[in-house]
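Team,

Forwarding the record for the chain on the shared tracking sheet. I've put the sequence and predicted structure together so nobody has to dig through attachments.
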Amino acid sequence: MSTKIYPLQFEPILKDRIWGGEKLKTVLNKPIVSKITGESWELSTVEGDVSVIANGELKGKSLTDLIDVSPNEILGTKVYKQFGKQFPLLFKYLDAREDLSIQVHPNDELAKERHDSFGKTEMWYVMQADTDARIIVGFKEDSSKEEYLENLNNNTLVSILDDVKAKAGDVFFLETGTVHAIGAGLVVAEIQQTSDITYRLYDFDRIDAQGNKRELHIDLALDAINYNKVNTHKKYETTPNKSNVIVECPYFTTNFIPLNGDIKVNKNGETFTVYMCIEGTFELEYENVKYEYKQGDTVLIPAAMDVYVLNGEGSILEVTI
């Protein structure tokens, strides 16, 4: 094997946002210094924002460099065959002190044609929710380009969009084309395709510190939007010490593991695994070494790690391809 294999953690890539706050520090213990930190990119190979390993022998190396040297060991044989040396997913935590903009993401075909990028199918797991926090997901009823534009121009877009209360433990799966916005008062774990392509439709007429409104992408969004009503809220089982499927789609599979004891994991080398600790703590034992994790930690398990044990009292999101 060309690379030493062990569970990998990465330096968080912190992003200030006009809608951000301080909960990534107070809730998830991220090293933020600003009062408007909206995002912690946990695992990324987006150009200009490539994750750097924070632990062990490989500390200081970038994820892209590691994949370049050992694609099968890190990504897995199936993932490498499908995506080459690209890491296909992006993992984040978000803190919405204010509403995010109403936005939409293009599908693979549009994103490739316009931006030479993947599309952006994504899911949210709500980690913390203030009272009455809500999200916007899709249209209340089947709509049309004409109705959408009429409401956009009349500043009544919000009136035709679905407004859903959100609480801790809720999961929302957003296929490309779904108009959406995370609402104020939510801390969310986000799993998505590797893409930073967002079309902003409406930003509540906010201005930044310089007195400017943020750019909108009205024309680009028209052909990207799914104007039909969609069902985004995912129900899932919570059987202890088991991988309970939440989302299974062409881009990723996410399981929910309520951990209350031990789970032995056996892998076949086809795909990497990512764990996001969303509550409590857990430890992972691999080759007689124990690695400890707490709420807000994200860890990449290289595909070549074939047998290990999870143990603890907590809740974990388990993501594979």
